[in-house]
Amino acid sequence: MEKKRMGKLQKIWITLKNNAQLRIGLLLLIILLLIAVFGPVFAPYNPKRLNDDLLAAPCAKYLFGTDKLGHDVFSQILCGAATSLKIGFIAAMISAVIGVIFGGVAGFFGGVIDQIFSEIMNIFLMLPTFFLILLIIATFGSSMLNVMIVIGLTSWVGNARLMRAQAKAIKERTFIKSSIAMGESKFSILVRHVIPNGIFPIIANTTMNISGAILTEAGLSFLGLGDPNVISWGQIITAGKGDLPKAWWISTFPGIMTIFTVLTFFLIGEGLNRVLSPKMDAKK
Amino acid sequence: MKRYLFKRILTGILVVAFSVMFNFAIIRLAPGNPTRRLAGKDNPNPATIAALTEKYGLDKPIAEQFVLYVKQLLHGDLGYSYVSTAKVSDLIKSRVAPTLMIALTGAIFGLVIGTLLGVFAARKRGRKIDTFLCSISYLFDSTPSFWLGLMMILLFSSVLDWFPTSGMYSLRVNAVGFARFLDLLKHMALPVTTLVLIDIPYYFRIARSSVLQTMSEDFIMTLRATGMSERKIFNKYVMRNAIIPTVTVFGITLAYMITGVAMIEIIFAWPGMGRLMLESITNRDYPTLSAIYLLLSTSVAVMMIVVDIVYAWIDPRIRVE
Predict the structure, then answer these.
(1) How many CA atoms lie within 13 A of B3 on its CB side?
(2) Which range marks the domain in which residue A110 is found?
(3) Which of B11, B14, B256 is the closest to A128 by Cβ?
């Protein structure tokens, strides 16, 4: 038992050793999670507090300076980490769940269902997603919940296509055929065998979607469509836009944090993809 | 091929139909009463409200309104802006040229530079320069375009003072002829550079991975075995196959052109569609927003079909299927 566990750990270790993207990505992720969880505890000021020094340059007192209302930018960034991560994770999860169910059903059941579902996917694929999100948020309000749901609802097609291909391939395999022969219900086969066996590419894609969602949220905030009740990096960047020439620090730091976060999930996604298709790696 | 094309066109029509319905719904479901907005006062005269309601047909049953809406669309009438009461189609027409100017320039530069770098990196695969280019491409891929724009202003306008921060022409100089053109180029430099930097990673990654993909195919191995020169293999066989995905991406970029550079336009106060979008969002000008959306989704649907045709034209394998 002990030996078997060691084997698994060793396998993970070797994978990490050969896969720089995954290694760096996971390291960055740990740092990010630490910031998101403990950031508010370590923030030197209440991020919403209006300090007396307006537009103060970065110094020992205000690490990343203050904005024109006297908010401490460093504290705001620490507290904004959780917002970005939350939006990224939840939006990507929504899109993963919809994608897996939609694609799984289409690929597994095939026939007319597949045709209809594929057509719906084709339509969604042709929709200009960002503008659609923007239009919906502008109309129905920019609460964080709305933002997450709308991003999730518009970004599932990639997942659905992956899952559909997986389900189509997996349903031809012997263990599925024997389950059918044993009389297991189709729904149960789909949920218990097809989806778990085909989920890996969706995990990789979902990691990429987290990046996409974070960038989308930043873009929405920039257009004035961020949730006014939460602190997000996109909103700090936008707030600093007007003071850019004389106070570069307000917009610069949250932007760097956004890049860092998006990069983290890109790297993990790429790394997972490389684990998935070692063929591209073989020559290296 | 004909059947495939027919199917694609059908999907395109469905997309446009969906967008029309969606647009209709969103204007009706939008919170707040547009007539109150148009009346423009805190306590509008009920007579004004009634007149406006009638003018925009908002008092008729929903089904009738929808028929009216579709009829208008078929006549090319995208409705009136709630804010300026100008025709939305006129608003868009006046803004689209500046947008296309930077979007097209940026897309072409991005395509050429990105693809060249991608092919170069693929040929140097695994070497230091490849790793370096890949890392840089990750970095720019993760950068929000508007933030990059801000940083460009900070560096090249505020610190170095090489380029103007915003607008299309210098307001105080009334240059004509070639001087005016130079002025325009100067104003275009920063937005276009930002756009190119944001676009390069896409083309880079696609070119690099499709070249690598093609080079690992069996037929390349066969060609090598025949003793054909590496250069000929590359120019004649690898490139031809590897360029196909790039065509798709470029086609889709063209489709998104009218709004795709909105963020960058806003940062540089470029008088294009981006500004119109921002103004419509801040004023909650739903007719304008939804008209832009409709235009965009139609253009995407059409472009995707065009891309499919081009695809079949360069890749006979698809035609045969």
Answers:
(1) 2
(2) 19-40+62-278
(3) B256
Give me the CATH code for the B91-285 domain, please.
Answer: 1.10.3720.10
Residue A8 lies in a domain: no
**Contact state of A128 with B290 under an 8 Å Cβ cutoff:** no
Residues comprising chain B, all counted: 321
User: DSSP label at B144?
Assistant: -
For chain B positions 197-226, those within 8 Å of chain A (CB to CB) are: 209, 212-213, 216
- pLDDT tens, position by position, for chain B (321 residues)? 677 778 778 888 888 888 888 878 877 777 666 666 666 656 667 777 777 777 666 677 777 777 877 887 777 777 777 777 777 777 788 888 888 888 888 889 989 999 889 888 888 887 888 888 888 888 888 888 888 888 888 887 777 777 777 766 666 666 666 767 777 777 778 888 888 998 888 889 888 888 888 888 888 888 888 888 878 888 778 887 788 888 888 888 887 877 778 888 888 888 888 888 888 877 777 778 888 888 888 888 888 888 888 877 777 766 654
Which residues is A66 bridged to in the sheet?
A72
Predicted complex: ipTM over 0.90? no
Q: How many angstroms separate the CA atoms of A79 and A233, rounded? A: 9
Q: Which residue, among A245, A247, A222, has the nearest Cα to A232 in the 3D structure?
A: A222
Minimum Cα–Cα distance from A269: chain B residue: B138
